[in-house]
Amino acid sequence: MASPANGFVLVSTAAFAVFLFGLYGHLTHFEENGCNMTYLFEYPQFVRIPLDDEVAMRHRRYGLYAFAEGSRIEKVRAMKFDGIPVLFVPGSRGSHKQVRSLASVSLRKWLGSRTPFHFDYFALDLDNDHSGLYGGVLKAQTDFLKFCVKRVLSLYRGPVAAKPTSVVLVGHSMGGLVAEGLFLEPDFDSDQVRLIVTLATPHTPALLPDQRMSAYYSRLAHFWSTHRVSMKNLTLVSIGGGARDIIVKSSQTVSKFADINVISPSVSDVWLSVDHYCILWCKELVIVLVRSLFDSVDLTTRQITRDAQLRRDVFRYHLLDRSAGKKYQTSVHPKEMALWSSESGGGWTSLEKNQAVWDRPRGIATTSHITVPLATAADTMVVEGINHKTKDWLFTCRADGSVNGTRIW
After folding, report:
1. Are residues 202 and 315 in the same domain?
2. By its UniProt entry, which Pfam families does this protein fall under (predicted)?
3. What are the pLDDT digits (tens) for 338-390?
4. Is residue 59 domain-shared with residue 179, that is, in the same domain?
5. Is 173 considered catalytic here?
6. pTM for the whole structure
7. What CATH number has the domain bearing residue 201?
8. DSSP per-residue letters across 304-354
9. Options 101, 173, 255, 264, the catalytic residue
10. Residues 91 and 162 in one domain
């Protein structure tokens, strides 16, 4: 006769085996990586930026680097910067070298599109700190980031009107929290950062391994809850990796303080889940981020626009609502559109048949209005558009009035 102790051992062993089986399935059964790799076209180099003696002594383990590639290496070595500064903050056990994909694709876009502006990429070396497991390093990292923002801005010479006054922050994983924690510093000028992009950042922790990390999260939550409404000039974008990221789940990347929360499978022209580190080099996603940055530039100042609403519209377009080409244009995406007025006019066409074709071989020079009768509100209609240069061309509404005998929407 089996003893109760033996029965307990058998049940415990079986339960543990089921747990291991489930854990194995959780760690191995997810969609394959569909991202293309980003490649460097020229030899890269990370040039160390000298810091003030006091800062260097205070943060001996940390460093600040500038990314350079090909012919731009000598210019960066000479500390000559004339672009828009972007500062990368790595996450737990992260490296400053992880900025290379974003920086290299940005350089290729500048060379290809010949814009009158470009981006300068900088990155923090945080000595591969385990910031995801030990909260004691978060305060030091935040303090170092504060000094580096000021140092990056001090590198730019020339007329005051042409010098950048703000830095774009891109934070990966815990680096995103450090970027947000920058605003906790009492002597930090919040106008020096107008745009933060967090990648796979756990805005909601899965676990709090120590009291210091718990306190850091609590301080962040309290500060942002209290001050987010007044921080109207700051744009915060949070991007998660989706199902492939088994380190930081999609639900953790959602921030109630962000202007935009999105996961990579939902991003237009990406539609792919990425793992925790792939999010930094996934070509499809990196290209979308670079396009968003370029479209956020004010061509007058050649810096990131001060118009917070425009920044939000640009990132929303590229990440959520892309309905036209690769470039956001306010002329294509106006806030309001007058479909008809007695002054603007516009032709009206009524299509009464179940199947009808409306074509204009010579193109359309003015707004055109087409009415299609629907027997009931539940009726459906299929519209096929051919040879359109943009996707954002169709607006629908109900014709329920008339002006001068002309029915309007």
Report:
1. yes
2. PGAP1 (PF07819)
3. 655 555 556 777 777 777 887 877 777 667 777 777 666 556 777 777 776 65
4. yes
5. yes
6. 0.80
7. 3.40.50.1820
8. E-S-HHHHHHHHHHHHT---S-SS--TTTS-S------TTT--EEEE--SS
9. 173
10. yes
